[in-house]
Amino acid sequence: MSGNAGKAWTRDELILAIGLYCKTPFGRMHNRNPDIIALASLLGRTPGSIALKLGNFASIDPTLDRKGASHGSKLDKQIWDEFFRDWEGMLGQSEALLSARTTPQPLSEAPEGKEVERVVKVRQNQTVFRQMVLASYGDTCCITGLKVKELLVASHIKPWADDVKNRMNPSNGLCLNALHDKAFDRGLMTFTEQRTVIFSRKVPRKKENAFLLDFEGAPLRLPDRFMPSEPLLRYHREHVFAA
Fold first, then answer.
1. Mean pLDDT of 83-94
2. 236 with 150, same domain?
3. C-alpha closest to that of 174 among 238, 86, 115, 236
4. H or E segment to which residue 76 belongs
5. Final residue before a domain boundary, out of 52, 84, 103
6. Digit-coded pLDDT (tens) for 10-45
């Protein structure tokens, strides 16, 4: 049992822990993970207590097929629900809380312009979205199985500019290699209702393009959690894909 078993979790601590849960692959939700150790140090808890809390979140995660009883508290579930209603806002809170606890604050600071603030926020959001999506797919391309992290992209199914509500929703993300990400983004590739790859007629069926077209009909490799949303995939088929 954790040495912090009797210490109640605050709302801010849970928001920080859920943020870490979303960015951590299942195979790394243990007390030896440096990220878990770092959060434990920030919160004055043991790594074991943080790992246990992440396990509790897994037991109430609605994107998982799970068996058995939930081990989360009422407050755990309440904050989970808030994340699912407002991914961008809640993840923003989590990152802001983390920054406040880890980044030294200057004695005086000139106010940043609104445009600078907007650019910083967009970059932060893109970084967090990538962390969540890659963690869900085990740092593996969902088409080819490529595992070179530097060549992987967290692709938005419904484009960033088209849906503010789902910009940070990890179920609006796919882990694709850079080439197939570009094809997906340009509408040259999509997924059928059976979640298999299909290419647009705009991609010439020539042997020189085999490195791309060889994956036509390949199944979408599903993530451990945050399954790709079928309504969002349908949107891509109907509004982005150039049949």
1. 94
2. yes
3. 236
4. helix 74-85
5. 103
6. 999 999 999 999 999 999 999 999 999 999 999 999
Whole-prediction pTM: 0.86
Count Cβ atoms below 10 Å from residue 211 Cβ, excluding itself.
Answer: 10
CA distance 202 to 91: 38
Sign of CA dihedral 150, 170, 232, 196: positive
Q: Are residues 139 and 205 in the same domain?
A: yes
User: Strand 189-191 and strand 173-177: pairing?
Assistant: unpaired
Question: Is residue 1 scored above 70 in pLDDT?
Answer: no
Q: Where are the beta strands (DSSP E) in the chain?
A: 152-156, 173-177, 189-191, 197-199
Q: How far apart are CA 115 and CA 92, in angstroms?
A: 17
Whats the size of the chain, residue-wise?
A: 243
Task: Supply the DSSP symbol for 108.
Answer: S
